[in-house]
C-alpha cells in the first residue's frame, strides 16, 4: 500500500523528463470476424457416392498353393550347403514307432523300495549326528508302509485261496458230502 492508502500502480514508468503516454484500456474486447462459408457444399449426396466405384468389391483370386514343408527343407539345404538342391519326387513313409508296453509297477515292490530308502536316510542322518531329530518320523513312516504291505499281502492271499478253491472244486466232480 502506498502512504496515501491507495493501491500500487500496475505499471511503473521510468523516471524521465518526458510525460508518460496515456495507458491503453486493460480489457479491450477482441474484434470478432464472421467465419466464411464455402461457396460449394463439402458433402456429396448418397447417390453420387454409390454411383462411383467406392462400393464395389474386388473379386477374390486365389494364388497357387505352396508346400511350406518343401520350402523349409529347401531353405535349410541352401543355408547348409550354399546350393539349391532340386529334390526328386521321393515319397516319405512315416515311421511308426511301437509303443513299448510299460508294465505297471507293483505297489508292494514300491513299498519295499520306499522302506529301504527311509532306512538308508535314517542311517545317513545318524552318521551326521542328526539321528535323534529324524528317528521318530522315519520309524513312523516305515510302520505305515509295513501296514500297507500287510493289507496288500492279505488281499493277495485271499485272491489265491479263491483261485485254488475254484480249481479244486471244478476239477473234483465227486460230491464232498460222501
Automatic annotation (TrEMBL):
<protein>
    <submittedName>
        <fullName>EVG1 protein</fullName>
    </submittedName>
</protein>
<dbReference type="Pfam" id="PF05250">
    <property type="entry name" value="UPF0193"/>
</dbReference>
<feature type="region of interest" description="Disordered">
    <location>
        <begin position="1"/>
        <end position="29"/>
    </location>
</feature>
<dbReference type="InterPro" id="IPR007914">
    <property type="entry name" value="UPF0193"/>
</dbReference>
